[in-house]
Amino acid sequence: MIAIIAQFAQMERSTLIERIKSGMNRAKNIEGKHCGRPKGSKIEKGKFLKKYRGVAEDLQAGISTRKVAKIHGVSVNTVLKVKKEISS
Fold first, then answer.
1. Are 55 and 68 in contact, with CB atoms under 8 Å apart?
2. Which residue among 25, 28, 49, 70 is the one 20 to 30 A from 88 at the CA level?
3. Are 32 and 69 contained in the same domain?
4. Is the dihedral of CA 47, 53, 56, 57 positive or negative?
5. Helices (runs of H) and strands (runs of E) counted in the chain
6. CA angle, 27 as apex, 23 and 30 as ends, to 5°?
């Protein structure tokens, strides 16, 4: 019984994915709409590090990721992005 219900759920999921993809293709090809991240919303490396200069300085000073996030009022993920940009 559970296997039958699982199979129905899998079929429903594949149908949903198919409908979403066809709708996105129609919007892109026929209506000319853009799907995804807005153009120009990604910041260049130099501007990104300039924006979070204090975060970069504290990371280089050896302060922990969570402490830096708390000090500067940014998310831990932002601090990790700055850390990644510094190391690359």
1. yes
2. 70
3. no
4. positive
5. 5, 0
6. 120
**Could you give the maximum distance between any two Cα atoms of the chain, in Å?**
60
Shared-domain flag, residues 47 and 33: no
Tokens of 77: 């993920």
- Same structural domain for residues 17 and 56? no
Whether residues 13 and 51 share a domain: the answer is no
pLDDT band at 88, cuts 50/70/90?
Answer: confident
Chain segment 2-38, per-residue pLDDT in tens: 999 999 999 999 999 999 999 999 999 999 998 888 8
Domain count, the chain: 2
Range of the domain at 78: 43-88
Quick one: tokens of 38? 């807005």
